[in-house]
Amino acid sequence: MNTKVLRVGSLRQLQTYFLLRCNAIPRSSFVTRTHARAPREIACLEWAGVVRLAMPPAKKTPAKKSETASDTASEAMPSIYEDASTRATLRFIVSCAAETPALVGGRTVGRAYLFSSAGRPLSAKEVEQVSARVTKLIADDLPITKKALPYAEALKYFGDAGLAQSVALLRSRSSESVEVHTLGSCSRLAFGALAAKTSVLAAEPPVLSLHNGALLVSYGPCDGGDAPPAKRAKGASAPGHAGASVSTSLLSASNDHAAWGASHKVSCVGELNSLQTCNRELHDFILHAEFRQEAKLAELASAIAARCTGSSDADRVGVVCIAGPTSSGKTTFATKLTMYLRNLGFTGRALTVDHYYLPLDRQPRYQARKLRSDVDYDHVESMDSDLVGEHINRLLAGEEVRTPVYNMKTGFRDGEGTPMKLPAPVDKSMLVIEGIHALNPEFLKTVPSKRLFKVYISPISSLQLDEANALKTTDNRLLRRMSRDYLFRGHSASKTLSMWANVRRGEHTWIFPHQDAVDMVVNSSHEYEMAILKPLVEPLLAAVPPDDAQYAAAVRLLSLLRLFHSASTAKVPTTSLLREFIGDGAFDCH
Fold it and tell me: Most CB within 10 Å of its CB: which of 157, 176, 262, 346?
């Protein structure tokens, strides 16, 4: 490990450096607090092409009895997998190690990647062989190089190697040369920065395992939140560890969506780009994607109705709880679900839980210094959970309540509240709530669990870029939000990008830990939507100037969008959930 000196003159220069290297600013408070006034020179450690800040020596304080060695280690050094380039290096090495049998994947399922073999399940022996190759590649400390190949040469290489998705992408683009990353005799398309050597993964080797005929590549520990384990809030996410970091809900939804895409012969970007726009190919694919969404809504409504028919009052569904990360389409989804339930004879009423914040003088974090800036409105403790539970139970009993009206300017409630009562008959009515804490058991702890039907919603794309990389759900959501922020809030791309890290921290802390404890997972992804979003957000990203702190992130997203062909928003039905982000929809939801 070598020591190098990074010369910077400001915090922005420091952040920009790490954005360019890692596509992310380190979450360590050492960056954001210690370097609030960045010195001229900062000591860094460099190993296998990965740069880390050299942390100052920790003060020697007696460890608490409850602290373990792993707790102390996780606080001292962040995971190598916080860097996007390290995760990309992992996918690249696995793909190179799995040339026989050739695997396709890199789809995210929690803190793991999913790879599979086309046409047949993998055997335990094959997974062991791939795992052994990955281990050897890491131990051999081999260089990873980047080079440009002539288009014809690249096309021949990927064709001879049987990498059909890479070939499909190349055939849909026009370029004289093709950038590839190479490890020995193995090459893959280059989509971003990788580490300089394979040994970068030696500090935290991945764990490869067989799961239902597919290969799971788990990595970690990788902390989902920004707080150390000892300080993380109740109900918040904890650090994941390799081999125990797979989300079952994401895995099932991803596999289901991948099978649907394969049935329509659109499993990768190249195949999506090949759909003809001058006839009905692309239009029909869009309609098929919408029909699939509607079918899932109908399936959900039927499942809820089944829990109401013939059930006693104690077991009948009274509250449909909907949660998911930002830009999943929760608002439109909840609106459409109530309509589907109405067709089955049930009346759904929205309960706006955003008004159930505790008054400022009862906020726990306000008490110490009497500063409103200390209040964390994302934290479950800022909510009046007792009042939420009381009102829900009374509404389900047929009583009238007065729901609070919270004034965010003053931090207190206005007036006596708004009268609310479920329409009769109550056994044919239910509440629909959506919000960051809708799946958190702490939030609805006083409501009988049998009265709840929990739904997790997220756009979980299975679209491959090539054999080793898939479209990231986070990028999909970020581009959705960017379009919506501009159209309905007047925000620039830079403004949206600047808020993204905080948004993601809230999701990791309060939403993702509960995504598997649900009755149903709804995948709100449309595999065609990147073609629709491209002409809307590309000009916004192109307007981010080089001296903007978000410039590197904008460049990365522009590179991603260049892989896709564009399509007109006119092809999207007005009832589509996607209209929440592109406008002109049948529902006033944005």
Answer: 346
| pTM of the full structure | 0.84
186, β-bridge pairs: 183
Spatial separation of the C-alpha atoms in residues 231 and 500, rounded to whole Å: 23
| 192-202 pLDDT tens trace | 999 999 999 99
Phi and psi for 299 in degrees, rounded to 5? -65, -40
* Per-residue tokens: 134: 């990955």
DSSP 153: H
Give the pLDDT band of residue 69 (cuts 50, 70, 90). very low
> According to the 3-state scheme, what is the secondary structure of 82-120?
HCHHHHHHHHHHHHHHCECCECEEEEECECEEEEECCCC
Q: Is there a contact between 525 and 459 (Cβ–Cβ < 8 Å)?
A: yes
Other C-beta atoms lying within 10 Å of the C-beta of residue 76:
10
Neighbours of 46 (CB within 10 A): 15
Q: Which of 260, 159, 215 is nearest to 463 (CA)?
A: 260
Q: How far apart are CA 341 and CA 372, in angstroms?
A: 41
List all residues 6 or more positions away from 396 whose beta carbon is below 8 Å from its beta carbon: 318, 319, 422, 426, 431, 451
527: three-class secondary structure by DSSP: coil
Query: Residue 314: which residues within 8 A CB-CB, separation 6 or more?
Result: 448, 450, 451
Q: Which residues pair with 202 in a beta bridge?
A: none
Which architecture, in CATH terms, is 269-582? 3-Layer(aba) Sandwich (3.40)
CATH architecture of 82-241+248-254: 2-Layer Sandwich (3.30)
Give the DSSP H or E segment for 520: strand 520-523
Query: How would you write 314-343 as a 3-class SS string?
Result: CCCCCEEEEECCCCCCHHHHHHHHHHHHHH
pLDDT at residue 53 in the model: 57
Residue 7, helix vs strand vs coil: strand
CA dihedral 289, 292, 293, 295 (to 10 degrees): 160
Phi/psi for 260 (5° steps) reads: -65, -45
Determine the Cα–Cα distance for residues 463 and 452; give it in Å rounded to an integer.
33
d(CA 457, CA 160): 40
Report the alpha-carbon distance of residue 338 to residue 476 in Å, rounded. Answer: 26
Q: Which pair of structure tokens corresponds to residue 518?
A: 């649900």
- Say how far apart CA 507 and CA 378 lie, in whole Å: 10
Encode pLDDT of 230-277 as tens digits: 233 343 333 333 344 677 888 888 899 999 999 999 999 999 999 987
Cα 551 to chain centroid, rounded:
21
- CA neighbor of 485 nearest in space, from 377, 590, 575: 590
Token pair recorded at residue 449 = 């669990």
Q: Alpha helix (H) ranges present in 241-398?
A: 248-263, 269-273, 281-306, 330-343, 385-396
- Name residues whose C-beta falls within 8 Å of residue 344's C-beta, 6 or more positions apart in sequence: 301, 302, 305
SS3 of 297, please? helix
Q: Which SS3 state, helix, strand or coil, does residue 555 take?
A: helix
Pair of tokens at residue 176: 């004289």
Dmax (CA) of the chain: 73
Among candidates 80, 128, 130, which has minimal Cα distance to 242? 80
Whole-angstrom Cα distance, residue 286 to residue 161? 32
